[in-house]
């Protein structure tokens, strides 16, 4: 009997406090008494988007958990997990391109502010605020914010990276692209500006399905005073579709969506215009990037999705 009493006493004294705000486990699992919020953190009162939510920035002090024990630094970047805006990638995860409080590596819309990370309109992991198609399953392939010379890119002479922007200055034309094979069905999005340089058909464009020599590719973007989808095969150029507009060349956003040879080119440049077309003989190149011709073009980011 004495042994039984001792066991009961020991069990009654051991009642650890489960830390608040730890990352949800596989299948959004959380410790007993906690739930996984829309920020993918476990709390007894999870963040769910209502006005009574516990704010994401209401966290324990950086050096201790809610029960006073030391807080881990999972990625070793010297920033404790409970105040780290993305505790995943050492020395890089504090980069927050859209300044929404969620680091790029963890952000489901790294280029559009969405602090609540909502992605409930379809079953994919891309945030509702930037999802290319909320009725389709999309997957982010990569995001480049041009904080430094991008790794794995082909940047011909004339392209520079500074101040968080990729810039190309050309009288002729040049393409900068991610030198990695992309899926066949992709959406490429960029934002930037264009300054006319007096060249022939000055333009800034998104390029998709480029080959490694950048001689065969599709282009979607602003050309002079129009939006245009064009196919290039060697020296041959075919315009698939075009619409005239009055562009605001200081604020250009281009979204180029390709699905099995069918295109949607959405360009915001003082107006929003959608073009569509199809190609009986789609190109098979698998690179994506941006192009400048006869102008100075700057780009804040390039993001690619597959679908």
CATH topology of the domain at 153-306: Jelly Rolls
Q: What is the average per-residue confidence, as pLDDT, rounded to a whole number?
A: 84
The strand count comes to 16
List the secondary-structure elements in sequence, H or E. HEEEEEEEEEEEEEEEE
- The CATH architecture of the domain at 153-306 can be given as Sandwich
Structural class: mainly beta
Helical content (DSSP H or I, runs of 4+):
under 10%
Number of helical stretches of at least 4 residues: 1
Q: What portion of the residues fall into strands of 2 or more residues?
A: 35-45%
Write down the overall geometry. Answer: elongated
Contiguous runs where pLDDT drops below 50 for at least 5 residues? 1-16, 49-60
Largest sheet: 13 strands, antiparallel
End-to-end Cα distance, whole Å, is 66 Å
What is the rounded Rg? Answer: 24 Å
What do we call the CATH homologous superfamily of the domain at 153-306? Exo-inulinase, domain 1
CATH top level of the domain at 153-306 is: Mainly Beta
Oligomer: single chain
Topology:
Elements: H1 2-13, E1 22-23, E2 35-36, E3 41-43, E4 139-144, E5 153-154, E6 159-162, E7 165-178, E8 186-196, E9 203-210, E10 216-223, E11 226-233, E12 236-244, E13 252-259, E14 262-268, E15 272-278, E16 287-306
Antiparallel strand pairs: 1-3, 2-3, 4-16, 5-7, 6-7, 7-16, 8-13, 8-16, 9-10, 9-16, 10-11, 11-12, 13-14, 14-15
Task: Write up what this structure looks like.
With 307 residues, the chain is mainly beta. The protein has a domain at 153-306: Jelly Rolls (Sandwich). Helices cover 4% and strands 39% of the residues. It is built from one helix and 16 strands. The strands form two sheets. Strands 4, 5, 6, 7, 8, 9, 10, 11, 12, 13, 14, 15 and 16 form a 13-stranded antiparallel sheet that branches. Strands 1-3-2 form a three-stranded antiparallel sheet, with no helix packed on it. The longest helix has 12 residues, at 2-13.
């Amino acid at each position: 009997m004495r042994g039984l009493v001792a066991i009961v006493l020991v069990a009654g004294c051991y009642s650890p406090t489960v830390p608040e705000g730890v990352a949800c486990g596989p299948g959004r699992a959380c410790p007993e008494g906690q739930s996984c919020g829309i920020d993918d953190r476990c709390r007894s009162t999870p963040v769910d988007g209502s006005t009574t939510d516990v704010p994401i920035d209401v966290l324990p002090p950086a050096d201790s958990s809610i029960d006073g024990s030391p807080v881990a630094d999972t990625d070793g970047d010297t920033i404790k997990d409970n105040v780290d805006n993305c505790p995943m990638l050492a020395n890089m995860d504090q980069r927050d391109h859209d300044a929404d409080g969620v680091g790029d590596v963890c952000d489901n819309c790294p280029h559009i502010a969405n602090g609540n990370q909502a992605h409930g309109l379809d079953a994919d992991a891309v945030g509702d605020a930037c999802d290319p198609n909320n009725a389709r399953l999309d997957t982010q392939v990569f995001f480049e914010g041009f904080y430094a010379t991008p790794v794995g890119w082909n940047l011909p002479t004339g392209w520079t990276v500074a101040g968080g922007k990729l810039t190309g200055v050309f009288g002729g034309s040049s393409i900068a692209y991610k030198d990695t094979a992309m899926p066949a069905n992709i959406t490429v999005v960029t934002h930037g500006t264009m300054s006319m340089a007096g060249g022939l058909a000055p333009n800034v464009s998104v390029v998709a399905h480029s080959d490694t020599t950048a001689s065969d590719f599709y282009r979607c973007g602003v050309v002079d005073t129009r939006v245009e989808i064009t196919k290039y095969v060697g020296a041959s150029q075919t315009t698939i579709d075009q619409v005239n507009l009055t562009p605001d060349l200081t604020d250009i956003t281009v979204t180029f969506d390709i699905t099995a040879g069918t295109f949607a080119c959405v360009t915001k440049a003082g107006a929003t215009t959608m073009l569509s077309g199809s190609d009986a003989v789609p190109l098979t190149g698998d690179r994506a990037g941006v192009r400048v011709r006869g102008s100075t073009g700057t780009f804040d980011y390039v993001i690619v999705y597959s679908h």
